Amino acid sequence: MSSVKGTTTKNVSLPKRGTPDFQLLILTLLLVGFGLVMVFSSSSSLTLASEKFGNDPLFFVKRQIIWVVLGSIVMFMTMNIHYTKFKKWYAPIFMITLVLLLFVASTEKINGAKSWFSIGGLGIQPTELAKISIILYLAALITKKGERLRDLRTGYIPVMVIVGIVAGLIMMQPDLGSCLILVATSGLVIYAGGASMKHIMASIALLVLGVGIVMGAKTAIDSLSPSSETVAVNQDYKQDRISAFINPLANAEDSGFNIVQSLIALGEGGTHGSGFGQSIQKLHYLPYPYTDFIFAVIGEELGFVGTSIFLLVYLYFIWRGILIALRCTDPFGTLVGIGVMGLIAIQAFVNIGGVTNTIPLTGVTLPFISYGGSSLLVTMLSMGIMLSISRETNRPAKEEVTKSVTTVRQVRAR
Fold first, then answer.
1. I want to staple 303 with a disulfide (CB 3.0 to 4.6 A). Which of 152, 265, 272, 375 is the partner?
2. pLDDT exceeds 90 at position 307
3. What predicted TM-score, i.e. pTM, was given to this entire model?
4. Cα dihedral across residues 178, 142, 79, 315: positive or negative
């Protein structure tokens, strides 16, 4: 009996994992490289002329390179970890995320929000980690529930409670843009997981109603409180965002200034652009041209042709990732893949939509392109998971080929 067992163990080998999807890998590296180039172009003139940045034209590029190196290491390491491991690790990752979100709420405000804390001079934004954490958590939970997700009490409500907790912590910072992106991505994963469309539509209606009630109540309370000069400023800021979206030219010197300058940059680009590094709007006209408004710099310097090529590459990258997710036979892998690619697509749409005045401006980064360490690191971690999923997607095809070749050899031998 022992000899039979030994023989069986010796002859049977575990199936090997496939190769990662090289198209997705190359597209990721191309986008990261293009992002570095555009961070240099959009920031070098500003930092060269500023003592605050040591008159160093490479000030932001050097920091971004550090995050690119760290992100690349994380991506290649994650690519070689079987993605199903995250089905076991999702709970600890989620708990760490909650702790970080609670911790950042006690920090000082930076640019009007408590979204950051520093470690060794590098800024950390827990909200970015929350985006991938919620995807892993929902994918694992939905896979475990299966058909029970369609049950309102035992399936759907517990899932939505998790989303609500994370969204609430992000809104405490406050960070409306990231909150909306997280909620939209969560909704996409939940829908792909088989939730009832009736429940989803009811949730959207309740969300809109709840936001209206909370904002109305907050406005009423603030109007009765004479103490809050800061609150009044915040209210005016939100109203300005809406009015700037509706008619930016009505107050082009104040609330509509950012959008008007962004649209001028896109218009100045014309068909072929002003040329790399030749943007005028990045010189103290566009706020943070290397982060929120980097797409406007791309439009001005590369023009309609260059911007169209960039968007086509971006769209092909997203399509390729979704294709990999749909080809995965494991429901957990499919949901994670759809969540990751959906997150990138939604955030890119929010950024580009705000810059082009297609939607109200919220102030989020353009994935892979904008300056931002936390965003780039987490996005490359997410791509490592996607590449790990692609290795499993490629494996069955390779096994079928091997079986076919073996069968042909056996026939010839006979």
1. 272
2. yes
3. 0.83
4. negative
